[in-house]
Each structure stands twice: as C-alpha cells, then as structure tokens.
Design the sequence.
C-alpha cells in the first residue's frame, strides 16, 4: 500500500504546553521538527484552570523563560489579571500568577508555532513508535537496547526521525467521568488517543493510570457577584518574561471573585459520596492529593466549616466563569445542587460540567534526568505523560526534553539542572527518582534550597545555560551579564560606604525607629536592620547613582538575607558532593553483596546516575549509600588499574 | 586550597607514661604555637626548622603551666599527611591528654574524624591505597552482621532523646512547609510564639545533652562491664553501689532482676558501661529464662566480667555453668556477702574454676559486702589497674566519637540559636526552615539517620583515631 514517508529530525507527539516548548526548542536550534496534534484547534489548550503561575509554578515559568522557552512571553501577551502572591512572606515564596484569556493564549501560541522556521504542525494521531534494536555495549554511559527510528500515524504515514518526544498529556486512552456518566474522550470532549499505548507496551514501556479533574464553568450572567469579595490584580504588574518590557503589561485588568462553601454544601457532598466515581471505586487512576476535588477536601478536612471558592473569568470574549477550588466528579444533579449552596451561585447555570479524567501515563523512573528513556535511545518525554500535573510543570519538562533531544542529535552533552539550580531540577529529579503514586504537582516545600531558587533571580541562575544551549540570543544574554555586574558593584559599594555617628545620621536613624550608632557602620550593615531598606537609606547615601528596579531588588535581597543565603549555600555544597559522585551506567548491583536486598532491587530498577540521586530513592538507606560509596571507590581504583 | 587543621590523641587512652597529640593542617604550627612556651617562656614554635624536636611547656592563660612537653615540628610536605604536622609528646593519662587536646581545639583546630589523618595521607597521595581491596573486605565482612551495628549500639536512652528532638524539629519543618503550600487550610497565625517556645525547649534539651557529654556519659560507650552471678548473689546491689542510686530492683527474693540493666559509670576517668543481668540458674520460669539467655549473650560481648558469688551459700552446678560461660573473658570474682557466715572462700572458688575448666585461671578474687559497702574501693582499684596495664582495653575511638557527637550537638544548637535570632528579628517563616533543617541534619548524623557528606570517611573511620 502506498504511504507517505517523510524524513525529519524530530517528531513531537502532542501540542499541549509540553509539546509546544519541546517543538519550539528543537526547531529554534535548527532541527526539522514536526509537531503532531489530534486537533490543531487545541494547541496550547488550557482545559482546566484559566491561569499561569501561582506558588512555585510561577518560579517554573520564570525559569522556562530564562532558558529561552515561550510560556512566559505568551502569558505576558494574553493575561487579563496578574498578581504577585505571598508578598507578606519572604522573597523565596513570592510567586507570580496571571489569569489568562484562555482562547487568546492558545491562539497566540499557535501563531508562534506557525511562524517558527523548521517547524511543521500536523493534525494526526500518532499510533505507533518505530524503533530498532540497538547495541550500546561500546558506549560507557548507555544501557539502551533499542533506538527510535520514527513514528507512524493512524492514516499510515511514516515519519522517520532521529528523536521522538512524547507529550501526550491526558489523551492516552482517556475517559471522562461525571458521576455515573462516562465518555471515552480526552479533555473538553476532544478525541482521545487510543492506539499509542499498545505500541508503548510493545516497546517494553511500563504504563500506569492517573486521574485528575476540573470544576464546572458557570454562565457569568447567572452569578451574583455582590455576595462575593472582589479580587483585584496588582496595581503595578510585573511581567513573567525577563524580556518583556514592563510598560507593555500595565493593562486594564479584570477581577476575580472569592466566595466560600458552607455546611450545606458539605452536607450535600457527604450525602452523595456513594455516587462519586472515586468513592464508589469506579475510578482506578490515582488522583493528585495536592489538587484535591471538593469531595476530597470535605472528607479530608472534616472539621473545616468552609473552603475557599475562586470565581475566575475564562477570557474576555466569553462570560464563562471557572469555579476554582471545586473540582468534582459527582453526578450532574449533585453538582448543580452543591454549587447552588455557595453564596453568589444560588441561581447559577452550569455551562460545562465538572468532570474527572483518567489517562495512561508512564512511570517516570524509566527516564534519565535528561528525560530520555533509559532503554530506548532517542525517545524523550515530557508533561502529564510523565506523571506530572499542571501546565507549568508540563512546559518545563517539554523544554528540557526538547533541548536534550536536540543536544543529543548534535552529539553534545545534554543538560541536567540539579536541585540547587532550579525548580525545574527539583521537578525532574523528583519525577525520575521518587516513587510517584499520584500526579506530581510542583510545590514550594519540595525545593529544599528555595532561598536560592527565587523567581526574581531565575535569569541570573539560568540565562547562561539558555545561551550556551543556543535558545537565548547573545544580545539578551549580555543584558543579564550587565545586570549581574551592576548588582555586584552596588553591593560592594554599600559594604564599603561607611556612615559615621554624625548628628544628621543619628537623627535620620531615630526618625525611622532605628537604634543610633555607637561606632561607624557600613550602609550594608544598616540595610540588614529590619526597619531600614535601600530606599529609606537614600537620605544618607549621597553618592548613589540611579539603578534599574530589578538590580535594586537583588541588592536588597542579597544584603538583607546574606547570612541565610550563605548558610543555604553551605547546605548546597554538601548536597553537591554527593551529586558529583557518578555511578557508571553499567554498574552491576548484584556484585555488591553487602547491599540490602530491597536497596539492591530499587537501585537496579532506578539505575540512578549519581550517589546523590541514589540516596533519594525510597528504600535505600544511609547504610546502603555508604556501602555504595565504598564500592565505587574500589571500582574506580580497579578501573584505573585496567587502564 | 587551604586545608583546615585537625587534631586528635594519637596514642591509646591509657595511663602510659607518654601520650601524643597529633595536629595536622595548614595552621598546625600556628595553632600549637599559641599554647606553647619554650624554657625561656617564648612563643617560639614558628621559628623552628622542620623535623626538629623541642622542649617546653603547654600553658593556659599565658603563664599557667599545664604540662611539660616535647614538641616535634614537621613541615609540609614531608610528614605523614603531607601537611604541616605538630606532635605534642605530653604526659600520659586521660585527663592530661584530653585537657591538652581541648586547648588545641580551642586554639583553632577541629577534632579529627576517625581515620582522618590516614585519609588525608591517602588523598594527598602520601600513601598508596592499593589496599582498597582489603579495606573493602573488612567493611564487607563487618557488614553482614554489623552495618547497622553503630545504629544498634545507639539504641540507648540518649539516642532516643536525639531521635525525639529530631521528631520535634521535623514536625515544625513540616508545619511551616505545609502552611506555605496550603495557606488556605493551615494558618501560621500565632505560630511565631509557639515556635519560640519550642525552640527554647530544644535548645535547653541540647544543653542538657552537652552537659552530659562533658560528664562522659553521652553515648553508651566505655568498657563493656557485665555483672553475672546466680540469683540473689547481690548483683543489683553491686550495680547500685557503683552508681550510687537505687536503680535495679533489689529484694531478698531470688530472681528479681529478670532483664538486664545498663548504666554508665565513671571511675576516675575511665568510663564503664555496666550491665546488670538476671541471675543465672536452670529455671522453668519463662520470663526469667529469657533474662538468663540475654545474660549469656551479653556476657559474650563483654570486655570485663564481674562475677558475683554469694559466699554464704554452697557453690553448685549453676556456678560451673557460669564459669564455663565466662572462661575466655577478663574476670574479677567478687565473694559477696562477707558480712554473713563464710561458706565459700578463695580456695573453694579457685577449686571450682579448676574443676569446671580442667585448668587453673588466675582470676582476681575480692571479698565484698554490698550491704556494708565493703571491698568496693579494692574493686575500683583493681579495675583501674587492669585498665592501665592494658589487661582490658576499650575502643580508641570512644573519645573521638564522643567529641564528634558533641560537635554535632553544638552544630545543632547553633542552628537553633539562628532560628531564635530569626524569630527575634521577625523574619518571615520560610527563613527558619533553613536552620531547622540544619539542626535536623546535624542530629541525624549522630544516630546515623543522615548520610554524612563524604562517605569515604566511612572507610577511614575503620582505622583508629589519631592515625
């Protein structure tokens, strides 16, 4: 039978947030790339919440941007409200969150893809991965037994390529549940992808089943906002992208609304729990604990009298409103009854029902931290397919998978961000190292070195990597270099500028409720006082030259929190020592008789790349790690004798 | 790269005539110079040539002479570690050596990890460790039974304390983290004050641990001394007498101590880890039999056995059992209850030993009365004598381990003080967690629940300290 046969460099399967970043990265690095989607109209779709960012997720977007990804730029173009969260807390947990105009977001991203050189969009369902067996025995750091050669679509077209990136999201064998009603579709009623799973299983890939859910969308005209608290955006909006001109994002914003559930709501839910597919046992997939349905919240926090409900607009050109905090898989009639108990929603009409969705994904321990499959050379994956949840988590992985697919094709060293470099590093390390029994959501608490991984310094941390990879232009990179220089110079100046106990200085200090000086102090020392800051000190800092806002911000943080940053840096040093101890890919754990059985099995199945990674695998104890380290010393000394 | 300077006692901790304290690292000479004066009262160490030895004094507070010493100076790279090395030949004796070591540490050195001198020698290319294989063997052999042993050893009350402090800290870390991630459901209102109270409590507890460390009681270490004997021979009374408090249950009914009791006792600077066991006799009582079994097991690990014999009753086959059980051990036999009519004397017990083992054994035999507190001084002197003559020895690492643990507790305390500072300065919640985390990790290193940084240390810790 005649068929289409094409030769390209990279095939990206899926055009959600992961797929878009992956495809853009490859194409921008000059590789001929095809991105497949079951529906071109659903590129960069936001089938759940209408926002980008939020606690820790905002960090991810900033990091994506610093590395040369698209998400930050795209939300800057299409947001309708923006807010810096946690401003009353320390700088490490400040997080940007923007409400998106969903359809605009999707359209803008599609435009970027369409205009990208070397990138082709193809509406087709990929049904089969093509691979051949592979002999990796001559390569020291490779244990693959297969190599990817291409993909085949439902219509029989074959695309030969050097790398495939799977970003299938929630589409694989998807089914949606709304109480007793089950439909076999992907999100938003889109066509599910029912064929690829078999091909993956044939390649020896381990598949698991996860679930997630989304709340109902209301007709905005049926909501009584007078019973809710209005939530405004920030007066001065800070853009996500380091490349966006801050003046361009000072737009007119729309409001969100806050209301609460009550005892009546909870009562209805409790009475109907037996009709929830989760509690009735119909759903087999595991749901995210940290993004719970309203049923879960009512059961888990039984003593809570109320839960927050955020009413958020889906866009400027629709009156549909998203009911944040009340995702559910209860039947339609229960949903309506429950929503109508919420103040302001008494007369609401549901446009789209809440539903839970189940889908196939992989156990990500099959991946290297580069997001390449250990067993299949050239096969990468990102996003919900890897067992994560969230747009930002998906985009972050897509970007890294795309970058590493390209670097691998070029024969270059792939990049792996570690836990002390980026939230992206934490995200991927957690995915490939820890036992993930539910969709993985990024959280601030997962980043142990978060004081260093702030959203405000993502560019200082990661721009250079983006530049080295080739996704950040020299021009843009130079700006970061310049910023770094200004920060260092200003800190130096503040540390060296000494303020004496002159009368006007003392008066200045007492006027700000600050203790007067007994001996001279540097401006930096004064800045460490909680009641003083850079701006206040301008009165006695006479030699100051004007600096950009973002430079001052860094100077302030680095001086005020110097002690903390230093102590955290010491913790990082300890951590890095363990990360630097590499474990050869061909190490046979069966040779290490002193490992406990459980540890040996876990190490064999995870094949960690470093002792540090090994130490984070559950079931591997400190004692096992010391055995491993001693063995490695021994192993290396044997190897060097061989040479 | 600058290396920090380490110090440790390089000779066995015993009452030998001379002891050596070894100091190695970039600042070794500078550090020792601070506490050294030559015969002309000059701080002269810096002037000396490499590989020379000098007479002088270790002084405290500028002029108080602590000890008369010989000091050898070996400058980099020609030393065991290839670093600047100073060896202080001081008078032996545990007190003196500890005192001088403490002074060296105060002057800026850090206590050496076990085997760290050897490790430095290795890392600096001074010694060839092609014997890595042999080291591996040692560790692997140990591993089969004993990889967890260090943790097991620490099952005593102090490690329980550390464990519970860690849990307290972890609870706070978890609370802060969950509040950061789920502000809707977990409020930090009023948390500041609650944490403040907790921090004070933990600092206080750590201080207590530090004090106990100074008393030499920190972990269950020392000479493993096991008290054995038939029921009602006075074993528990002996233990009580040694520790000076009523701890074991003492009654006139035979078989009162059905399990084992353990206490750390300091006899003029020597730490004894004394274990009281259930009396040994053939018994039908289930609980008592378990106690007897444990007594047998514990005796097999003992460094020293105190065999208590009731001198007012006849010896029997149970005594034969006991003598056989302890035949390869260092033993002191106590003829207890000397206040009562003497049925068993030195000769009787020696005969019994000969009969049981088919040969003589010159066990030290002491008459005691635990009731009248007689003979205890002779016992103490005998133990000291055996220890200082090397008849019994204990692990050289004991002191170092104590010091290392003490250091970790200090680290934990410092971290908690940082938390207190942050609270005082009203810093946002997420800042505390850094220091709470550090405190948690430091305590974890003591009980082996935290992977230490450089685990090659583990290999070298199998060497003796100061080596």
Sequence:
């Amino acid at each position: 039978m005649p068929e289409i046969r094409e030769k390209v460099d990279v095939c990206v399967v899926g055009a959600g947030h992961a797929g878009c970043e992956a495809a853009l990265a490859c194409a921008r690095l000059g590789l001929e790339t095809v991105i497949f989607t079951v529906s071109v109209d659903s590129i960069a779709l936001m089938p759940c919440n209408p926002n980008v960012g939020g606690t820790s997720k905002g960090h991810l977007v900033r990091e994506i941007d610093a590395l040369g990804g698209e998400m930050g730029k795209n939300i800057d173009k299409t947001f309708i409200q923006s807010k810096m969260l946690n401003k009353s807390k320390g700088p490490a947990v400040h997080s940007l969150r923007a409400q998106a105009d969903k359809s605009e977001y999707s359209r803008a991203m599609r435009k970027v893809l369409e205009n990208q050189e070397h990138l082709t969009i193809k509406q087709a369902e990929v049904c089969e991965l093509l691979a051949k067996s592979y002999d990796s025995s001559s390569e020291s750091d490779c244990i693959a037994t297969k190599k990817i050669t291409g993909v085949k679509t439902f219509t029989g077209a074959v695309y030969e390529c050097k790398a495939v990136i799977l970003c299938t999201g929630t589409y694989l064998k998807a089914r949606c549940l709304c109480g007793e009603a089950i439909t076999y579709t992907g999100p938003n009623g889109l066509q599910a992808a029912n064929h690829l799973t078999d091909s993956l299983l044939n390649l020896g890939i381990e598949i698991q089943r996860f679930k997630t859910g989304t709340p109902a969308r209301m007709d905005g005209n049926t909501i009584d906002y007078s019973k809710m608290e209005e939530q405004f955006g920030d007066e001065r909006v800070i853009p996500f992208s380091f490349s966006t001109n801050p003046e361009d994002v000072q737009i007119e914003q729309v409001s969100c609304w806050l209301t609460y559930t009550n005892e009546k709501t909870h009562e209805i839910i409790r009475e109907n729990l037996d009709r929830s597919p989760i509690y009735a046992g119909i759903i087999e997939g595991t749901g995210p604990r940290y993004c719970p349905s309203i049923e879960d919240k009512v059961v888990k926090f039984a003593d809570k009298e109320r839960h927050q409900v955020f009413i958020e607009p889906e866009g400027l050109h629709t009156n549909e409103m998203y009911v944040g905090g009340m995702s559910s898989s209860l039947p339609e009639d229960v949903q309506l009854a429950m929503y109508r108990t919420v103040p302001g929603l008494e007369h609401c009409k549901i446009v789209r029902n809440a539903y839970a969705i189940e889908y196939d994904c992989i156990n990500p321990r099959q991946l290297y931290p580069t997001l390449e499959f250990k067993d299949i050379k050239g096969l990468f994956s990102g996003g919900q397919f890897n067992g994560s949840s969230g747009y930002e988590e998906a985009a972050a992985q897509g970007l890294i998978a795309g970058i590493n697919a390209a670097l691998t094709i070029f024969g270059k060293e792939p990049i792996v961000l570690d836990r002390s470099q980026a939230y992206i590093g934490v995200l991927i390390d957690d995915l490939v190292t820890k036992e993930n029994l539910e969709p993985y959501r990024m959280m601030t608490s997962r980043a142990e070195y978060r004081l260093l991984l702030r959203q405000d310094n993502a560019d200082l941390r990661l721009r250079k990597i983006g530049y080295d990879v080739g996704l950040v232009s020299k021009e843009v990179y130079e700006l970061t270099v310049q910023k770094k220089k200004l920060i260092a110079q200003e800190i130096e100046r503040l540390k060296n500028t000494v303020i004496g106990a002159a009368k006007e200085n003392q008066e200045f200090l007492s006027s700000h409720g600050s203790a007067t000086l007994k001996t001279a102090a540097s401006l930096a020392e004064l800045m460490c006082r909680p009641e003083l800051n850079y701006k206040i000190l301008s009165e006695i800092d006479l030699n100051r030259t004007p600096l950009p806002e973002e430079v001052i911000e860094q100077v302030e943080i680095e001086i005020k929190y110097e002690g903390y940053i230093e102590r955290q840096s010491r913790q990082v040093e300890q951590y890095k020592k363990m990360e630097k101890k590499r474990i050869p890919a061909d190490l046979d754990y069966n040779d290490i008789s002193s490992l406990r059985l459980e540890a040996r099995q876990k190490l064999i199945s995870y094949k960690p790349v470093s002792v540090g990674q090994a130490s984070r695998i559950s079931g591997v104890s400190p004692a096992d790690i010391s055995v491993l380290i001693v063995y490695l010393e021994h192993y290396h000394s044997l190897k060097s004798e061989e040479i | 790269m600058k290396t920090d300077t380490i110090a440790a006692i390089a000779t066995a901790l015993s009452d030998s005539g001379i002891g050596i304290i070894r100091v190695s690292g970039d600042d070794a000479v500078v550090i020792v110079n601070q506490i050294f004066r030559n015969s002309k009262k000059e701080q002269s160490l810096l002037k000396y040539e490499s590989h020379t030895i000098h007479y002088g004094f270790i002084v405290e507070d500028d002029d108080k002479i602590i000890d008369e010493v010989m000091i050898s100076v070996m400058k980099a790279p020609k030393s065991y570690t290839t670093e600047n090395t100073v060896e202080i030949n001081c008078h032996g004796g545990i007190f003196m050596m500890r005192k001088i070591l403490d002074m060296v540490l105060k002057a800026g050195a850090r206590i050496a990890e076990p085997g760290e001198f050897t490790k430095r020698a290795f890392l600096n290319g001074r010694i060839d460790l092609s014997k890595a294989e042999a080291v591996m063997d040692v560790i692997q052999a140990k591993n089969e039974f004993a990889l967890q042993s260090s943790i097991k050893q620490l099952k005593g009350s102090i490690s329980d304390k550390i464990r519970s402090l860690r849990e307290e800290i972890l609870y706070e870390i978890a609370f802060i983290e969950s509040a950061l991630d789920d502000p809707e459901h977990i409020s930090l209102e009023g948390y500041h004050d609650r944490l403040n109270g907790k921090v004070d409590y933990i600092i206080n507890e750590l201080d207590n641990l530090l004090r106990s460390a100074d008393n030499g009681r920190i972990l269950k270490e020392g000479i493993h001394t096991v008290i054995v004997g038939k029921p009602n021979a006075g074993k528990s009374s002996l233990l009580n007498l040694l520790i000076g408090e009523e701890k074991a249950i003492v009654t006139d009914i035979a078989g009162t101590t059905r399990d084992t009791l353990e206490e750390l006792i300091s006899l003029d600077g020597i730490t004894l880890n004394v274990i009281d066991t259930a009396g040994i006799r053939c018994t039908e009582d289930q609980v008592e039999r378990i106690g007897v079994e444990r007594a047998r097991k514990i005796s097999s690990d003992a460094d020293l056995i105190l065999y208590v014999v009731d001198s007012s009753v006849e010896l029997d086959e149970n005594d034969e059992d006991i003598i056989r059980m302890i035949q390869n051990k260092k033993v002191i036999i106590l003829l207890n209850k000397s206040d009562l009519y003497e049925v068993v004397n030195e000769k009787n017990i020696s005969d019994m030993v000969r009969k049981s083992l088919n040969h003589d054994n010159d066990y030290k035999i002491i008459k005691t009365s635990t009731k009248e507190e007689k003979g205890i001084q002779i016992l103490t002197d005998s133990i000291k004598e055996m220890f200082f003559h090397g008849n019994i020895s204990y692990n050289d690492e004991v002191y170092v381990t104590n010091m290392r643990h003490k250091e970790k507790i200090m680290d934990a305390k410092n971290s908690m003080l940082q938390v207190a500072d942050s609270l005082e300065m009203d810093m946002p919640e997420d800042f505390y967690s850094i220091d709470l985390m550090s405190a948690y990790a430091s305590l974890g290193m003591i009980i082996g629940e935290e992977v230490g940084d450089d685990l090659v240390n583990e290999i070298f810790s199998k060497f003796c300290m100061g080596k």
In short: The CA atoms of residues 93 and 248 of chain B lie 33 Å apart. Chain B has a mean pLDDT of 74.
